[in-house]
Every structure is written in structure tokens, then in C-alpha cells.
């Protein structure tokens, strides 16, 4: 197995529910190492830049509004096969379709407010980590 990094965002809906601690503990319990962490409130421009790949899709405006409505916690995580393992931990985008015990099943409300973001590929993870963390910020 290959050591990888992936990006995690604990989204505003999870922050509003004060679920950040439980989500963070679950990430640690599943063997991920946190190599960078910050809490911030995304500006609209930051949200649009991060989700630029979705620009033009019907949900883009709603997604950017949601992601900039409150604080988020952004983490770069590391472990073997981090992208795949984290995708398994968070579950399907739609919490109703997510497996039992996944973060989205436990803390998500709907497909738009699903508590946690995770990178979908190793290439995406590299770009997403770089979006939020300068090279020297990563342990």
C-alpha cells in the first residue's frame, strides 16, 4: 500500500450541530494522521475557487452559499491508501444512501448538507491540499 494524503473538510452543517469533535475523533480512530489543520470561514470567492470544477452545474450556487455560511475545519490527512480509506469512512454523498457507521450517515442531513468533504482521487487530493495549505504547513 502507498502512503497518501487526502483533504477533509468538516462542513458548516456539522459545525452548526457541534459534531466536529466526534468527526475528528472518528478520523483519528480510523488511523489517519493529521498533517495540517485549520478552522476558517470560507469567503464566497474561496468556495467558488475550491468548487470551480462544478461551475455551471445547477447546484453550484447553492453549494458555494452553503460552504461560506459558517465555519469549516480543513485537514490534510495521511495514511496508506488515504483517499480510498477516507471515502469509505465518509460514505456516499447522499446520507440516505451512505452505509451504517459512516460519517455522512451519522451526521449528514441530505445530499447538499452531508457534513464532510473528502477528495475523490489522489490527483484531486494533491490539488485540494495545496488549495488550503502551503507546502511548509504540511508536516
Q: Key features?
A:
alpha+beta; 139 residues; 4 strands; 40% helix; 20% strand; globular; 4-stranded antiparallel sheet
3D architecture notes:
This protein is of the alpha+beta class and 139 residues long. It is built from 7 helices and 4 strands, in the order E-H-H-E-H-H-E-H-H-E-H. The chain has helices at 12-16, 20-29, 44-50, 60-67, 82-90, 103-107, 122-132; strands spanning 3-10, 33-40, 72-80, 116-118. Strands 2-3-1-4 form a 4-stranded antiparallel β-sheet, sandwiched between helices. The longest helix is centred in the last third of the chain and has 11 residues, at 122-132. It is globular and about 40 Å long. The chain starts with a strand and ends in a 7-residue tail after the last helix. The mean pLDDT is 96.
The H-and-E topology, N to C, reads as EHHEHHEHHEH
Strand order of the largest sheet: 2-3-1-4
Calculate Rg over CA atoms: 14 Å
Low-confidence stretches: none
What average pLDDT do the residues reach?
A: 96
- Report on the biggest sheet: 4 strands, antiparallel
Question: What fraction strand?
Answer: 15-25%
- Please work out how many helical segments DSSP would assign: 7
Q: SS-based structural class?
A: alpha+beta
Percent helix: 25-40%
- Could you give the distance between the termini? 20 Å
Compute the number of strand runs. Answer: 4
Overall, the morphology is: globular
Amino acid at each position: 500500500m502507498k502512503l497518501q494524503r487526502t483533504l477533509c473538510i468538516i462542513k458548516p452543517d456539522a459545525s452548526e450541530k457541534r459534531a466536529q469533535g466526534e468527526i475528528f475523533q472518528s478520523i483519528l480512530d480510523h488511523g489517519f494522521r493529521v498533517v495540517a489543520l485549520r478552522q476558517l470561514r470560507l469567503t464566497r470567492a474561496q468556495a467558488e475557487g475550491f468548487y470551480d470544477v462544478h461551475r455551471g452545474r445547477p447546484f453550484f450556487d447553492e453549494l458555494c452559499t452553503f460552504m461560506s455560511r459558517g465555519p469549516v475545519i480543513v485537514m490534510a490527512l495521511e495514511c496508506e491508501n488515504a483517499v480510498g480509506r477516507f471515502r469509505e469512512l465518509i460514505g456516499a454523498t447522499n446520507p440516505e444512501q451512505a452505509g451504517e457507521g459512516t460519517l455522512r450517515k451519522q451526521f449528514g442531513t441530505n445530499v447538499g448538507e452531508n457534513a464532510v468533504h473528502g477528495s475523490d482521487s489522489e490527483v484531486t487530493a494533491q490539488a485540494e491540499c495545496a488549495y488550503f495549505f502551503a507546502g511548509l504547513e504540511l508536516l
